[in-house]
Amino acid sequence: MRILETSISMLNNINVGVTLICPKLEIVWVNKVIKEWFPWFDFRMKSLCSCYSYMFPGDACHHKLIEGVFKTGKIRQTKTEMFVNDQAYKVTFTPLKEGGKIAYVVETVEEITCEKKAEDRLKQLVNALERSPSAVVITDINGSIEYVNPKFSAITGYSPVEVLGKTPRILKSGKTPPEVYNQLWAAIRAGNEWQGEFCNKKKNGDYYWELTSISPVRNSLGVITNFIAVKEDITKLKRTMDEKNEIQAKYMQAQKMEAIGLLAGGVAHDFNNMLTTILGFTSMAMMNVGSESDAYKNMIMVNRSAVRAAGIARQLLLFSRKQPEEFACINLNNTIDNLNRMLGRLIGEDIDIEAKFEPGLYLIMADEGNLEQVLTNLAVNARDAMPGGGKILIKTENIYVDAEYCKSRPYAKRGKHVCLSVIDAGSGMDKETINHIFEPFFSTKEACKGTGLGLSVVYGVIKRHNGWIEVNSELGRGSRFEIYLPASDSAALEKTAGAMFPEANHGHNERVLLVEDDDDTRGLVKKALKECGYDVFEAANAKDAESIFKRENRDFQLVFSDVVLPDKSGLRLVEDMIGQKSGLKILLTSGYNDDKSQWPAIQKKGFRFLQKPFSLFDLLQAVNKAINDNARKLSSNKPVSSSN
Is the per-residue pLDDT at 311 higher than 70? Predict the structure, then answer.
């Protein structure tokens, strides 16, 4: 008891609860702290079991621990933890010897509520990190990895053992600019948070995008001890955004092409009116001079230039892709020759274009504008495959496709064909690329350098011409596109200046109402028709035409009208007139060849149509056919063109 007596004063003044227990497992003494912490405790209760069951309900292990200390005969310390009234305590049992025997067991009770709550909070945080849907990486101040959560391993394929002690540089792909890392370290070393994107590489070599937030971790003194990074895998989001941007770029390109098409249509309309006048009056003048004179030869050159100018107007409309298809018997050599000058300007001076034409090339039934578009697309792709310059060869050949050839190519057809080849010495393509080049929107071009190869358009055009395409290419060895088009059995109609007014196309005083807002074109058509035996009444707009029609008691065999008039649609005008006179013949014309010409409606109604610019031969033939085509019914849905 001397030990107890000398220590009792000190034990009553410490901030730790102390209980003295004798070998009978009875409480001998408690200090003031125990009394303050457990004011309901009845100190007259000496039984240890009774005391503990009262002090710590539901916890019956303490007396067994104390029994164990007494029985061992050795000094040992036993710790346990318990909660009472939302307070946490740590209990320690220490044997106390006297005279070589264990005389007492001293129980000390320390309140650890704050520490316990902090520990539980830490466990919650660790559990949250382990279950986080985001990857978490903790490094020391030098960037060495000290912790990664399971999500990190799921994304990257690296286990914690593989990355601990290493730096996040193991994820580098080389696709993230160095300045991004420089900005990162400058920010976090200054104690600031940094957020940015990385293109990283997984353990298996796959690339992925991540959005990363990195923050410094400070100790109680405010010193940075670690960095914590929270990473989100945004690969799918980036892919979706890239697809969205690509679609938006295509939409913007489509809008731009739409605007170009509208502008080109307006330019072509005025241009075609002027060319119609030039072609017409030149042809008339040629009739009045000798074919051996210099004036005649000069007018031939003017006529040829006007025809080529008409081709340029048509080529402008290629970019709008709104031309109505008009199949005719053509010589592909002439089409390529006429297109070559424009291709030279489009391709650039560092690309040499060579054309090799087979003499006596088979004629083909084709829409010339569509074939010009095919050639333009192939030439542009060939140019892009030769960024350092080079040579494009455009070649035509007569080919007979036999049964043996068709065996290995089920899409081919036997018979005579024209083969158009476009050959370059560019970068070439591998087999995988060749397998996809005709798919819509497929492209091998970099962003902002085009929206596609345009080969889906080429494929569609050639299919509509009952042809097919062969592609031969190797990486680094250029490409060869061969287009096969069936030869036509029809003979081409050759038109000469001397046959402008054939007798077969002359009129017999038929009354024609001419409606044309362009003064020069109207003057030309009136003069040509009058000289060929037609009685012509002219109007510059729909209002004047309606007035003349009414004044003349609708006594007309033909109404020849421009589709686009300043005050009313020419199509609407002639429909109104047909409603007033059954059997009235109609011939429409326009310098537009896109939607503004109302081509679909004209086709549906079955009206004849004469595209500007037209020659006098075309004009007289179209008027003659329109007046004398008694077999055609106005209610027919079959489209009729001036060439029928």
Answer: no
C-beta separation of 197 from 234 below 8 A = yes
Tokens of 139: 């490094």
Distance CA 316, CA 270 (A): 13
> Cα angle at 423 between 420 and 425, to 5 degrees?
180
Q: How far apart are CA 398 and CA 589, in angstroms?
A: 36
Three-state SS at 556: coil
Joined together, the tokens standing for residue 193 give: 């948070």
d(CA 438, CA 459): 7
Tokens of 59: 């916890």
Pick the most confident of 194-203, 278-287, 338-347, 590-599. 194-203
pLDDT of residue 70: 83
Contact 508, 552 (CB under 8 A): no
Give the mean pLDDT of the chain.
80
Helix ranges restricted to H, 385-453: 403-407, 431-434
Interval 133-148: pLDDT, tens: 899 999 999 999 999 9
Radius of gyration of the chain (CA): 48
Please give the model's pTM, rounded to 2 decimal places.
0.44
Residue 183 pLDDT: 93
Q: List b or e across 419-449, with b for residues whose CB sees 16 or more CB atoms inside 10 angstroms.
A: bbbbbbbbbbbeeebeeebbeeeebeeeeee
> Which tens digit of pLDDT belongs to each residue from 348-368?
778 889 999 999 999 999 888
416, 398 contact by CB (below 8 A): yes
| pLDDT for residue 562 | 92
Taking the C-alpha atoms of residue 497 and residue 286, their distance in angstroms, rounded to an integer, is: 7
Q: Which two tokens stand for residue 57?
A: 């309900």
313 within 8 A of 376, measured Cβ to Cβ: no
Count of CB atoms situated within 10 Å of the CB of 69: 22
Structure tokens at 50: 């009774």
